[in-house]
What we know:
The protein is of the alpha+beta class. It is built from 39 helices and 55 strands. Strands 32, 33, 34, 35, 36, 37, 38, 39, 40, 41 and 44 form an eleven-stranded mixed sheet that branches. A hairpin with a 5-residue loop joins strand 15 and strand 16. Helix 30 (959-970) crosses helix 31, helix 30 (959-970) crosses helix 32 and helix 31 crosses helix 32. The model is unreliable at 1-5, 43-48, 836-847 and 1001-1008 (pLDDT under 50).
Amino acid sequence: MNSDMKPFADFFILGTGGVEPSGSFSEISESGMLRSVCVRSSETDGPSSPDSIVLSAEKLGSTKLLRLVAGRASSRYVLLWLGRGKLRLGYRCVERMIQAAEDSGAVMVYSDYYDRLPAEEGNSVLRLHPVLDYQEGSLRDDFDFGNLWLVRTDTLQHFFQGDKVPRLRFAAFYALRLFLSREGRFLHLPEALYEEDVTDMRRSGERQFDYVDPANREVQLECERVCTEHLHRIGAYLAPDEWEDLPNDTTAYPVEASVVIPVRNRVCTVADAVRSVLSQEADFSFNVIVVDNHSTDGTAECIRNLAVEDSRVVLLQPTRTDLGIGGCWDMAVRCEHCGRYAVQLDSDDLYSDATVLTRIVEAFHKQKAAMVIGAYRMVDFNLQTLPPGLIAHKEWTTENGRNNALRINGLGAPRAFRTDLLRRIGFPNTSYGEDYALGLAFSRHYRIGRIFDELYLCRRWEGNSDAALSVEKVNANNRYKDRLRTVELYARQEMNRRWNHAVCQEEVMAFFDRQLSIWEEARERFLDLDEKVRTKVLESEDYALAAQFNPCRIVSTVAKVDKKNLKKRPCFLCDRNRPVAQLDLPVEGHFHILVNPFPILPRHLTIPTRRHRVQEISVFLSSFNRMVWRMPDFLFFYNGGRCGASAPDHAHLQAGARGIVPLERDWTFYVNRLEKIYPLKTSEEADLQERGYTAKSVGLYLLRGYACPAFVLQGGCDGDDTFLLDKLMELLPVEEGCVEPDINLLAWRQSGGPADEDQVVMVLFPRRKHRPDCYYAEGRQQLLVSPGALDMGGLVITPREEDFERLTTRQMASILKEVTLSESQVEQIARKLHGGKVSRGLSRADERGGLPEEEPEVSVGIMCEDKVTFVLNTNYIAKGQVVTGSQTAECRDGGILWNGNLYSSLTFHPESEDASFTLEDVTFGIRFHWERKEAQTFRGTLRLIVEEEKLVVINRLPVEDYLLSVISSEMKATSSIELLKTHAVVSRSWLFYQMRLRRQGNNSGGFFSFVRKDDEYIRWYDREDHTLFDVCADDHCQRYQGITRATAANVAEAVKATRGVVLLHDGEVCDARFSKCCGGITERFSTCWDDRDVSYLQPVRDAIDEAVPVLDTEEAVDAWIRKAPDAFCNTEDHALLSQVLNDYDMETTDFYRWKVTLSQAEMAELVRRNRDEDFGNILDLQPVERGDGGRLSKLRIVGSKKTLVIGKELEIRRTFSDTHLYSSAFVIDKDNIVDGVPGSFTLTGAGWGHGVGMCQIGAAVMSEKGYEYQEILRHYYSEAEIKKIY
């Protein structure tokens, strides 16, 4: 390199240590290698150079700081110092790094260095600190590059040129180096080019757990987000729901579970470990397999003695001398003694209690897992807790754990495996990282179960192998795990490439031929299509139909597809249940193509999702057009879950040869019968053109003159835009309890000929019935026809010959009309394309993060009774007749008895928008102190269904109309306009969040709302598990009373002024909680419900510019609750409260601070009755855990007969009251104690309700003080965005 060359780098000193002010800095400055020096202000001791530029003191890991660096850099390279200790640059350090970068073209250069350690005499000691070569699997956020990086400036600046630059507070440099790894190569110089003061003197065994320290949780979450985005970009990301089905295991095992302990020379600890296993209490058989790897200290003799005492102890002693821990594990799981589940325990460690094995085995069953990972506590040899204490590995989540596993060095313990799968995968024969390798491999394919409670004690002592490791040993360990991650990364990329490749018709044809060449049974049925399956034409003047006699379709035609029967049978589309001979062809990321063994069409294919999930067209939308376009010789078809699908529990498309189904075959005959319904305006045409629709005939049409009504979509091409289909689906009616409209769909690629472009044609049949009446008739009246998409397209499938022979054109047309919507209903839907009101919920909005584009409708559960009396105040339509006046319906024989007839469900549709109905004896305030009954009047649709031998009454109406009632019911109609606006936004946000949860099936199970042990019962009461409607009408959701109370003008004004306005966080609607009075501090979410928190529901001091007090001791809580500090909600202004609260809410007057005194007899009876257990005399109430706002989330009840810890807050409130205590923020006084038994208890409390989110009383006071609704919302939901979405 020439000595007169221009400067090549800008030096940015960003770490807190700075550069040691010595001759080294002046030397490199004079060498001409640095053009400028920039120092991060205040925190950095930079060089004393008059030419230094000072950067603002942004956080070291922030995007803001990195953006300042990129903006300031003007040289070819930037040199970054990120260390906490002082830097001393070595001889020609900068010149060497720049030279290497120039020669190699690397985007980043880093080197080895010296650690400068303090010495007792005052002189520092240098210790070589080698670092590792970077691999593709070096995804750890703590990968050691050293703290001096040379980065190419253009690549750094390119980092900020994309449209999705993350806003980061901690992980900006982690995001940068992952970005750099995608842009070019890293170069590691194995030369010590600088020195750095060591500031972290902890041993390696302490530092390795930094990533699970709760104090670092926020940093870790940000790093997880960055790493996940990187995996997306390099094709290694695995979706959270893409699990392989667990195979059936028919192996006969000697026991249900085996605990495996590999050991070498641990005579002082192994007996304790074995005994902790033998002490397990389980209702299944288990053993403990100890693999002694040539111990020389008496370990084997110790185990033999234990085996004499208990036959459940099995000792294995390998003859090989080359086995590591992994090899010993592998030997154990392949031996004849191993049980169905193999569970880890190290020879140093102990199980925490006698239920560990039971909890692990239960987790396998409940979570459908192939591997289970628990939590453990770090302790010393005296079982005293060591930092960081409980290690629960909360970074391993259901949503993203399998991706986050590539970022972290450990996956939690103890680990347990299904033995059959473990034998298939096998352990690597190493003594480090063998369990991590298994965790990565398992997570690639299967669901990993999690137990976040403590399962065992990890004993740390000086003899532990990883208590204090040298730099070289740490590097060796990290190098191996980086290599494991690299291998796993390649495996995931290859798996994704295999699954994600685009569909290709030639490949599909070859696959089909290969399948028939090896599957004789399927081949014979396809031959039968030509030789034995008969077809006859059913003609009319306007259209042609055909009937196919196909006996092999009898199974599909008569299939029972109700939930009960589906649950009984194995799904024939899942991998584990398919015939061994049936091949599959993965395509488009989420699907695989199968040859249908019971064909209707030549080359009949079934295209299911790779994973088992309910039938829903939205699953296929992103790939549907593309598959149809790229397979022009195939007709695609879709049967909705109640529209002919014989496997409605597993999403699938089908396809087959074209030219057979009359509607598609004769399409040119029908083209002139299409009536365009969209676009009809110039603006609509322009919108389509902007979306890339270029065909002249693009649009939505009605098909006229066919056997039944249908919609036609024309104009699709080789892309994933589904605008037209989405637009139509938004307008179709959706039955309660369903996630999509009932439809059949046909699609094919129509040739445009020499003049026009090819285009995708879709014909959509909107259904109203699954099967026609003739299907259920008896004798000669029965026709066993169950229409699916091919039947709707004119090819009627008859598995019985007698039906085939006597079926007429008129009968078939009648059947098709019977099961589709009527002409008038279809025309009404068409009119809605141009401004009509949409009659559906949020299901399509789920693809927009739960945000609807237009006002949706909400289903509200009003009551659940044996018998319902109601009055239709105006005309309604039910079962095809106009009805009005008094009505009675009751549950009878599993159905609804009304007007002398028994129905499975009843829906009363209003004839006009102002129609209303009145329900008698509606109960509200259920289990609250204001519980009562009254007659209530509602607008909209009335629906009655049967659930668990009760009539469920549901009201369906537009969301904004619903909010008019909610605001009036929750607050006085005379409240201030800003308060009403605030409440409208909060209620709307909460409602949309709940509607989205229901549409996504959040209440289908898999997560539990309670934790029950012998000495603990923790339960939380979120909204009821509403599967039949979106929300209920009572206070458990939002109080809704229809139009029973007149809507005041200011309520209507508030709802109208905030129409469509919601609270958002990260683009998704907020779960906007609220309660009556927070008591001065709002509470965090996890105190009241499940153990998760969101940033917009954090503790807030209900006053301006006051910090949340630290309530981390009972003394602090006591002082807070016994005084009444200023707060917005601390008011006794009766005039204000009478405007805010309804009359029955005014029955509660002491909401800010309250007091309840109970005698011993009253307390004992309340606890006995509400807990349904006899505790005897109540001796004490002991706070165990509180939230940041002072509310109890765990409380220990000490009785003379029983002691139990209960939680969370509502469970506590329900236990100590006939209805509910005002809140769980209370302290306890015991009085008149005799022989240890208190004569009475006094509970002194704060607030009314759970306290999470908005405080209604506080919001009312803020509005009275002149705050606008946006300011009120930002006070209580500081991290949320206020946005209008329709």
